[in-house]
């Protein structure tokens, strides 16, 4: 992997990654000149016992591009710079202009009636490819392997910072989950705390490890493979399956068989197989109804809080937006108010539909 | 409050409630003849440590009414019965035909690779009024007081059942949260466990009570009233405010000042004032953009698990669908994958907009 770190005119970091050497002389650009937002802080929600992030600069975004303007495409007209320079590279990562969390977060004004703190951390945009009409699943396997190395690099670099305890790469895909920019990209949120859902998963994994001597997800994978009814991809190193306890229709998980704690712990053969699992799932999704399949995809992995995490086992979770063609899954009273998920479908049945989609990996 | 319990032809319960005596001879109806769904079970999500409900009968609903047919309106043509009889009553409660949770839940088939159990509990529909064009906020104060008595009655009756540990009334309002039936109605989910979000809130409240000697929400209300920047309704018995740690734009909470554990513990003056607080909030919501304001509204209260809950303090939480006119709040990577809420707005600012809406309570 080749890598080049640059600084944008407004001070934000840009890192280019490539399978080939990156040409000299690339200049980082920015669509705006004003400094990046710093007005972000956290407030403690005492009943839920969690931090809520307030990025009030986000509601005043001054950036109103014409509809044909794509800020994630390489710059072609120097008079209208985008977020990326033109040049030969595969993947780009840069700091969000209007971040929810940032190293630059100011100390919040007068304390509120609950504890507050600056919104430290990082929000990065990961541009998967220069091609605006591509998609994560359409990328060649070696491009996906590079992307896994990029996520690993960001995990290491962000995780090394004192103000960051948890690094979560994710992709929101489709207008159905609020995305209006169709250029293939994901994001990385790097939190100054271990967020509630990973914290809960790690707590459960710790208890299992203490009680059983091996990992919870490791055991579940063994059982899923033995059961065999919900598997989608079974490689030597990585597997993809619909968990027996799937909450969403078409919910799929991907994990290495070995309990690698993070994406940075995958070795080369694991990365190769993980990329194959990922591409298989993505092509099956898009093939299911012969159109781009909207989802939220998240990486759960070991915190970077300086503590040992033998319980952590890297995995990707997909939350699809639709429960059947044209029917969105709405999160309402039971899910939002009680935290109790209600599913109308069984993973044993839904997996048949994805299994029936034939895919070609290369 | 007058009350009449009936049984539908398909065996489901129907209870009518009224401010006036209910006429004799009303017959319970049902739009269908087939027995209510029983194919519902729970599976244990070992990583999140929570139960997921699978109601597979829901995906095969046979009921496809014509668009003008309203199953929640009183029956006018005996050849096409709705869920409700014609007659003089104010509020009706009946069991959902395709419940996620039901007393009739069958023992699930062969165990999966995770623990499973029948989907015991109850799912009830609460029809707020016979008038299909009304809304919760448009109902007269004494009708809202009756409704609080209805919720209290359901809390007591459902909570007394051995298979029910938590009773949660809620309303999903608007197509934005997945509702296609516009007749004013809410639902009650009665769970065979204390669901994750109330469980978390109660855990936090217990810890606070143990450490401070008084209730967490009680203390927060005192502080909010002293601060004064986020209050919307300040009655002798009940208050409505936007919490300092609001996660949604326009998120409002309503609670009695006294830490009444449940809606069944409100005394008559508290019910009167709570109804005023509720109507105030609802009228402000609908007045904000001069159109029906979509939201999810949930009641959090004491579990009915047979344990003492001195920490519980009844409150209503509203989760609005929009963060500004025409802009939905999407829950995506950070909210769904990390459980970390990101807000673009501050409650101190948003509350000003609701305060500016003038309302007439009667």
Question: What percent of the residues of chain A sit in helical stretches (DSSP H or I)?
Answer: 10-25%
Strand proportion of chain A: 15-25%
Number of helices of chain A: 6
**Pattern of helices and strands of chain A:** EEEEEEEHEEHHEEEHEEEEHEH
Distance between the termini of chain A: 21 Å
Question: Mind telling me the CATH superfamily name of the largest domain in chain A?
Answer: HIT-like
Low-confidence parts of chain A:
none
Our count of domains of chain A comes out at 2
Give a short synopsis of this structure.
Chain A contains six helices and 17 strands. The first copy, chain A, has 362 residues and is an alpha+beta fold.
Question: What descriptive keywords fit this protein?
Answer:
homodimer; 362 residues; alpha+beta; HIT family, subunit A; 2 domains; eleven-stranded antiparallel β-sheet; three-stranded antiparallel β-sheet; 6 helices; 17 strands
Written overview of the protein:
The structure is a homodimer of 362-residue chains. Chain A contains six helices and 17 strands. The first copy, chain A, is an alpha+beta fold and 362 residues long. The first copy, chain A, folds into two domains: 2-194, HIT-like (HIT family, subunit A), CATH 3.30.428; 197-355, HIT family, subunit A (2-Layer Sandwich). In chain A, the strands form three sheets. In chain A, strands 1-2-5-7-9-8-13-14-12-11-10 form an eleven-stranded antiparallel beta sheet, with helices on both faces. A three-stranded antiparallel beta sheet of chain A has the order 4-3-6, with no helix packed on it. In chain A, helix 1 crosses helix 4. The radius of gyration of chain A is 21 Å and the shape is globular. The two termini of chain A are 21 Å apart. Chains A and B meet through strand 3, strand 4, strand 8, strand 9 and helix 2 of A and strand 3, strand 4, strand 8, strand 9 and helix 2 of B. Strand 4 (50-55) of chain A pairs parallel with strand 17 of chain B.
